Structure formats: C-alpha cells, structure tokens
Amino acid sequence: MRKKRVGVLISGRGSNMVALIEAARDPAFPAEIAVVLSNRPDAGGIERARAAGIPALAMDHKAHGSREDFERAMHAELEHHGVELVCLAGFLRLLTPWFIETWRDRMINIHPALLPSYKGLHTHERAMADGVRIAGCTVHFVRHEMDVGPIVAQAAVPVLPSDTADSLAARVLEAEHRLFPLALRLVATGAARVETRANGSEHVVIDRIAAPPAALVWPQVD
Fold first, then answer.
1. CATH number, domain with residue 127
2. What is the reported pLDDT for 15?
3. Are residues 39 and 76 in the same domain?
4. How many other CB atoms are found less than 10 A from the CB of residue 140?
5. Conformation bin of residue 186: beta by default, left when phi > 0, alpha when psi is -120 to 50
6. Confidence class of residue 33 from pLDDT cuts 50, 70 and 90?
7. Is residue 175 part of a domain?
8. Which residues make up the binding site for N(1)-(5-phospho-beta-D-ribosyl)glycinamide (predicted)?
9. 168 annotated ligand-binding residue
10. What is the DSSP letter of 148?
11. Which domain holds residue 120?
12. 92 labeled part of a ligand binding site
C-alpha cells in the first residue's frame, strides 16, 4: 500500500499534530506525515514533531511581504516534501483563495465545535453561554469562508453540569485526537470524497459506513 504524504500546518503546541503522527506509526494507516510547518517560530509543536523524527520548519509569516507571498513559500515547501494532503491542526491563520484553491479537496481542518454551529473563536465559552447539552468537534474540507466546507466527520461529547469552558475544551480535545486520524484515514483512502449536488451544495460521501450503535442523549436521568 502506497501511503499518502501529508503536510501538517500548526501555530501552537500541536496536540492534534501529535495524534496524527501517532496514528501514522501504524503500518496499516494509509498516510504518512511528511513535514510539519508552523507560521510561528515559537510554536511548541515544532520540537514535538522533530522529536518524533518528522521534518519541521518554522516559517514566520511576518517575514514575508504579503499573505500570498507567505503561502507561496509554504506551498513550495509542501511540494518539496512531496505532500499530497494538508491537515490544518490548530493553524491560526486565514488562508487566501489562491492557497485554498490550489489545495482544494486535498486540505482538511479540525474545528472544536459541531459545525455549522459556533464558527470562529471562543467556541466553548459560547456553547456554555447558550446552555447547550452536547458539544463536539468537526473535520471538514477547507473552503474560502472561515470554518465552512463539506463535513468529513464529527464527534460529540456531553456538557456536564460541573463544566467550565476549560474542562469542556479538554473533553472536546480528547475527541479531536480520535476524530482527526479517522478523518484523515477516510480522505487518504478515498473513502471520503466531495460530491456536488444538483442544487450546487457540496457534501462528503463516505463508502461503507457502519450503522451507529445508538444516539448520544444527554442528560441521562435515573
């Protein structure tokens, strides 16, 4: 089996990047992490990637004349490493239409909310302020608008009565670490693919989906 070569873009500590690296250690996993790029030189994930034996490069976006100049430099580095798929793993920078179209249907992002709800930042604080009972995370293909694009996979977690935004964030992050490798596996094998419907909307079609065991219902009472 030829594995897809993956580039991971980060801006911080890279915990989702680590989850992808760990998943890719499995010989049966259909992708390998070829390179990690960060737009912030102080990102903790750079050393974590290097410690795992993954080439990692800090590319300070401030050192480039424009947003597109930075992205063209990033693109050149991705091509140099033979990257076929890109994973945004906490990459805290909006991408230009040029970069998004260049990697269209080959770039996925993880977001800490059940899209299309709670796009943008401060997702857990907003969810708790609204009193939602179930939160979660989403992996989706990247499009021009922020946190918009065909959804590959989602994971849900309960919001507990004792939760703070930080405790909810920690529970969602655990789900992210399980969800992102699953979504990458689906995309890398071609089991998940984008189709455009007659009305122009885009949806991800996934082959061989098993029936879910049950719905997540929360709260549960005696």
1. 3.40.50.170
2. 98
3. yes
4. 22
5. alpha
6. very high
7. yes
8. 14-16
9. no
10. -
11. 115-222
12. yes
Residue ending a domain, among 77, 103, 129, is: 103
68 and 121 belong to one structural domain = no
Q: Please indicate, yes or no, whether the overall pTM of this predicted structure exceeds 0.70.
A: yes
* Whether residue 90 sits in one domain with residue 17: yes
Measured CA to CA, the distance from residue 83 to residue 122 in angstroms comes to 31
Has 67 been labeled as part of a binding site?
yes
The answer to whether residues 222 and 131 belong to one domain is yes
What Cα–Cα distance (Å) separates residue 83 from each residue in 9, 80, 165? 12, 8, 36
Rounded CA separation 180/192 (Å): 13
Could you give the residue numbers annotated as active site? 111
- 185 has binding-site annotation: no
Q: Could you read off the pLDDT of 93-127 as tens digits, one per residue?
A: 999 999 999 999 999 999 999 999 999 999 999 99
- The reply to whether 57 falls in a domain is yes
**Average pLDDT of the segment spanning 48-72:** 96
CB 9 within 8 A of CB 88: yes
Residues 5 and 70 in one domain: yes
94 is in an annotated binding site: yes
Confirm whether 167 is domain-assigned: yes
Say how far apart CA 184 and CA 20 lie, in whole Å. Answer: 8
Tell me the two tokens of residue 117. Answer: 């709800």
Q: Is 93 annotated as a binding residue?
A: yes
Q: Are residues 50 and 146 in the same domain?
A: no
Amino acid occupying residue 135 = A
Count of structural domains, the chain:
2
Q: What letter would DSSP give residue 211?
A: P
Distances (CA, A) of 124 to 35, 132, 161, 207: 30, 10, 14, 32
Q: How confident is the model at residue 222 (pLDDT cuts 50, 70, 90)?
A: confident
